[in-house]
Write a structure and sequence with these properties.
Order of helices and strands: HHHHHHHHHHHH
Number of helices: 12
Radius of gyration: 20 Å
Helix content: over 70%
Strand content: under 5%
Number of strands: 0
Oligomer: single chain
Structural class: mainly alpha
Shape: globular
Largest sheet: none
Length: 302
Amino acid sequence: MSNHSWSTYSRAGGAMFLVGSLAAVSGVVNDYPFYGGQAARYLVSALLLFAVAYARRIPLIRPTRREALLLIALAATGLVLFNLFVIEGTKHANPAIVGTIVGTVPIVLALAGPVMHRTRPSSRIIIAASIVVAGTVLASGLGTSDTQGILYSVGALACEACFSLLALPLLVRLGPVRVSAYTAATSVPMLITLGLITDGPFLRTPTLGELTGLAYLAILVSGIAFLLWYRALPMLGADRAGLFAGIIPVGTILTSLALGFGLPAPAELAGVALVITGLLVGLYRPRTPAPAAVVRAQVDIL
């Protein structure tokens, strides 16, 4: 396996690990107004990403009309609606069932990614995605839900898939830094509007713990993770990249352990092992033997 592959895999895995840490870290900001906190988080992320673009001398080109519409759709689904559906879903369902349904995104991307490019889905990727999903289910556990909880969870699953699928055509011309910065910035007015409608006073001075948690979410989960994911996504394709969503519960478990929330249960460890197995199945590329004509030519030269 080439160094290029390892760097791509490490970016995708690192991005999903950081996303997985969200669940453990977000506990310290649960009492902060939700939409105000999200708006502040993505505003800080956008400013940091624009600073990265400036430091790397990446010009901020104007999106075309098609790109602008895709950016709006990406911000609305992958950021705003995803968070809304997850929050509303947990009001009607055990958080485990929400996480389990969203955790099936590898299969969705394994099917939808090739369809977008009018190719046949890889049977090996589908098998690998199924193993990853099984590991995610085992690590996350199952829970109870009513019909609304299921619908909200399915909505969150669709939005999670959109976060990758809608970004792919944007990354071709805009690149990962611009896509990350533009998407984060586009979500801010949407979140402010929702906050004014639903939360009333949606901003207040955060406590030190809340400020630390919001800073972590803004810098690592929404800043660095975006860049890592959007750099790896075009290299892997949506189907193979989707396998790394199985790293999310791994990030949750290890971050919870680091924060002193206790040792993982045996089922969680077994789920992590299944996720790793699925990744190895999906990312393994057997060496293709050289064509017979090439081998004969090499023998003749010798």
